[in-house]
């Protein structure tokens, strides 16, 4: 099959945001190559019937606008070419290994054999799919660690921007009650359903296509969201309206430079900051709805 390659060279700190932009352009997958001076090239693969040349001006504009959210993409270089080699589709598998998140929580790629090391270990069997390209991200790890700390049992949970549904699956296996996973991306919905089935939770987690919490009205115990600040900010008042009093709001996807702005936005919307987490240059926050 002939694919079209779209190569984007930017600063490493913009990697996740650029991948999100490429997914919105119907990317069928990405791979990452690290360059010198903290630069990377993201190669995105697209169906041959997509006219990439007409998309380039809008793509460059969206990447340039990332600076408004505290991300510096640096010099933006974009090229296109044809590729008839399908080997790339399994290239990303080499980035994924069995990953112990905590003593009790382990993420296992579906193609890896793994035996639990203790009887209390929770195994998350995952197929990352094309929504990812470079292994388990620090922001996902921060959310998983926070869930382990705040899930006590039978909480009703909303997972916003679920991606692969890893956070919903983890919450449910930790003992959560009703769990709902939302995402506005068709690829994410497909990936979520597959991973939920891999973990035998098809009857336990509700997956729905939805933008943030638009038109959602519930009264839940915990909301978790692993997204970039441009999505987190409009979600904050929605989360407040969907949480019970003393409900827990776990968020990540925040770069260090945006931590203060995010905390201030939470406080403005009547949240109390309970805890912050850090891994590399990424931050996570646990906030409590206190009325």
Automatic annotation (TrEMBL):
Query: Could you tell me one molecular function GO term of this UniProt entry?
Result: protein-lysine N-methyltransferase activity
Q: Which InterPro entries match?
A: Ribosomal_L11_MeTrfase_PrmA, Ribosomal_PrmA_MeTrfase, SAM-dependent_MTases_sf
* Reaction(s) this enzyme catalyzes, per UniProt: L-lysyl-[protein] + 3 S-adenosyl-L-methionine = N(6),N(6),N(6)-trimethyl-L-lysyl-[protein] + 3 S-adenosyl-L-homocysteine + 3 H(+)
Any one Gene Ontology cellular component term annotated for this protein: ribosome
EC assignment: the record states 2.1.1.-
Compartment(s) of residence: Cytoplasm
Q: Name one GO biological process term.
A: methylation
Q: Which CDD domains match?
A: AdoMet_MTases
Role according to the record: Methylates ribosomal protein L11.
User: Which protein is depicted?
Assistant: Ribosomal protein L11 methyltransferase
Q: Which organism is it from?
A: Apilactobacillus ozensis DSM 23829 = JCM 17196
């Amino acid at each position: 099959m002939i694919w079209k390659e779209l190569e984007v060279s930017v600063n490493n700190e913009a990697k996740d945001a650029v991948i999100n932009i490429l997914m919105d352009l119907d990317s069928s997958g990405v791979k990452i190559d690290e360059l010198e001076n903290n630069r990377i090239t993201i190669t995105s693969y697209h169906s041959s019937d997509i006219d990439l040349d007409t998309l380039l001006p809008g793509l460059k504009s969206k990447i340039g606008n990332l600076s408004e959210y505290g991300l510096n993409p640096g010099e933006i270089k974009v090229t296109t070419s044809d590729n008839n080699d399908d080997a790339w589709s399994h290239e990303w598998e080499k980035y994924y290994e069995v990953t112990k998140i905590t003593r009790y929580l382990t993420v296992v790629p579906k193609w890896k054999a793994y035996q639990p090391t203790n009887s209390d270990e929770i195994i998350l069997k995952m197929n990352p799919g094309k929504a990812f390209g470079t292994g388990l991200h620090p922001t996902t790890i921060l959310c998983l660690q926070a869930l382990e700390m705040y899930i006590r049992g039978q909480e009703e949970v909303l997972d916003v921007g679920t991606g692969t549904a890893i956070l919903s699956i983890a919450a449910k296996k930790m003992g959560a009650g009703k769990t709902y996973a939302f995402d506005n991306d068709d690829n994410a919905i497909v990936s979520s359903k597959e991973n939920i089935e891999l973990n035998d939770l098809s009857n336990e987690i509700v997956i729905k296509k939805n933008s943030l919490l638009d038109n959602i009205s519930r009264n839940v115990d915990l909301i978790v969201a692993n997204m970039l600040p441009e999505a987190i900010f409009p979600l904050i008042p929605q989360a407040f309206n969907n949480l019970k009093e003393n409900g827990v709001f776990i968020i990540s996807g925040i770069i260090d430079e945006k931590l203060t702005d995010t905390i201030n936005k939470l406080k403005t919307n009547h949240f109390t900051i309970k805890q912050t987490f850090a891994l590399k240059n990424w931050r996570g926050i646990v906030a409590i709805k206190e009325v």
